[in-house]
Amino acid sequence: MEQQDRIMDGDLQTLGLQSILKMLALSGKTGKLFVSSGPETLSISLRKGQIVGLHEDGVPQPDILGMLCLINKLDPPRAQMVRELSQGDMQMALAMLVERGWMSAAEMQRRLEFAVTQSISHALRWVNGRFAFHRQLLPMESKLQPLDVDSMLLEALRQADEWEEIAREGVTHLTRTTVARWQPEVSDDVRRLGLNQESIEVLCLANGELTLQAVSLVLMMPEARVAALLARLLELHLIEVVDTALETELQQDLSNIIIKCQYTLAQQRQTSQPDQHLLGLITTLAECINNLLIHHGSYARHLRGRGHIPSMEIVRYLERRFLPHLQMLAKQQFPILETATFHYGQLDCNDILTLHKLVKGEQLEEFYWEAVQGLVAFLRMIFTELLRDEVGNSHTGRQLTVAWKIFLSEIDHEVQQYQVYRAHRNAQMARGHDQSASPSIGIVQNWNGSSEPPNGDFWSHERRRSM
């Protein structure tokens, strides 16, 4: 920017934003005002003393189209079409909605005015910072109709006063970047909670993705009012504030566990003998279960925010939470799991892994097969409980669920391949085929008894290459 184009600059402690805007409005200035405080920067475009545009640097534009869908003001297919065309530009997206008759021009203007007022209200509370006005900079293009500075300031100051009021009431832990989500145990039927309409609207938008600022923007409700409603929902234990740093760390740890388990599963595919293949699956499943237990010992909701926790307390928590599931599976479906125990918060399958010392042949294979089925069921239970407790029905939870389903599909594929092998072997036995030499798990004998794989081989091309 040319130095000579800057006609005014200074410190916010010397001249506040309110006074700066009034001076520019009274003198009918055209140009761009930059205001910064710490990492935040606001640029306000003026034409003849009226506000015609505003941009907050470093603040991602909220997905206004997605939020309009959440409050039933827009259909998802229409939102997706406009999203692709507008490429993340909120003003362009609103203009396209107006062009297609899906929003009135008056509503678009109200939304744009509200966004400007909300941003300036936030900046009015800055105590430290700098400002500079450049007269030759052309105002940014905007769909916003010019705003009278005095009228806008009146509303912005009112909103700023509301923040001061709720701060006096003790709501100091919520900011415009706060993200909230439903508690996992909350029922989906909010009509039974006795909440007013505003509270229900805010609760429905507490999805673990939207900031307080974004909720305010879509509802056109002052940020301080949204904060007060969130505080009330927190008191009712209907929502929780998302710790974004913890959530990122948690997500990375679980992602690493899934990748590690996928690698272990791929490694055990090198064997083709049925009993060894099943033993490899048991080892993989037990390792994955124990990795999830270690993870949950660090990130369980019950254990958060308590500083250092003795290891035995974590062990007791894990066993209290998951041992009943294991015992239920052993009692109702998979008796072999009675030999599995918890030892210092970890699943101990040693008795299953050493069964070959006591049992041989088909009986050993049957025990291994039952153990695989039981451990798969237990693994699913653990992950479902773990995810529900740690992140609930959130964006992070949905992302992790997708990755987890991919891993489970690989486990299911291994199980299904073995089931095909068993079915084929049992069919051969029923037809009186010589079973003196059991086929390998990778090459299933065909119906005429030759050793060539039938059409086909019930295992993948990758498995055949590994034989």
UniProtKB/TrEMBL annotation:
Give me the stretches of Polar residues compositional bias.
Answer: 435-453
Q: Where is the PatA-like N-terminal domain?
A: 10-164
InterPro entries on file: PatA-like_N
| Sequence segments annotated as region (Disordered) | 431-467
> This chain belongs to which protein, by name?
PatA-like N-terminal domain-containing protein
Task: Report the source organism.
Answer: Tengunoibacter tsumagoiensis
